[in-house]
Amino acid sequence: MRISILKLSFLSFLFLASIGLSQAQSFKANVEHSHVIVEGTSNIHDWEIEVEDLVSQLQLVNANQDELSVQSIVFKVPVKSMKSGKGGMDKNTYKALDADDYKFINFKSTSIQKSAGTYVAVGNLTIAGTTKKVEIPFEISKTNNQIKLSSTYKINMLDYNIDPPKALFGTITTGENVTVMTNLTYNN
């Protein structure tokens, strides 16, 4: 009798665990309604470059409930999809990021932390072949069937072995810090 109670308990556990797993939903970023802008400075003026293409996937548990529980985030940007509207600046950016050898900027979360309504994606960010463990704070909300994620994150290019771009024989130099502003819209 004791063995059958243990079996029943084990089977009940497996059933409940499978229900929990089946509640995880995957959402893909809608590129047309998502925006990523990188802002920086130079010795002449501030600048910005916009990401025109990206791939991002968001895993949520209990996505149909009011409070969202984020399980994971994956984010991938083709370096040459970054456009400033100025061809020379774009070329300098691609050169600084070594875009011919490292075609993508990647982020993959290893854990998501939540405290008092604030989320932090802990994970690995790879830029120009260098990977660093980072903690990126973000906000998330749900309206109808869309999930919206926003984040502002500062990156020091030197941390990724990137020499800040220069132009006109070094007379124009960019600052080593950039700010990445991300506003993603996900659909399932």
TrEMBL record:
Q: Which residues form the signal peptide?
A: 1-24
- Which SMART domains does this entry report, sorted A to Z? YceI (SM00867)
Q: Does the keyword Signal apply?
A: yes
Q: Which UniProt keywords apply?
A: Signal
Q: Which domain of life is it from?
A: Bacteria
> What InterPro entries is this protein classified in?
Lipid/polyisoprenoid-bd_YceI (IPR007372), TTHA0802/YceI-like_sf (IPR036761)
The residue ranges of the Lipid/polyisoprenoid-binding YceI-like domain are 26-187
Q: Which PANTHER family match?
A: PROTEIN YCEI
Which protein are we looking at? Polyisoprenoid-binding protein YceI
Q: Organism, per UniProt?
A: Psychroflexus salarius
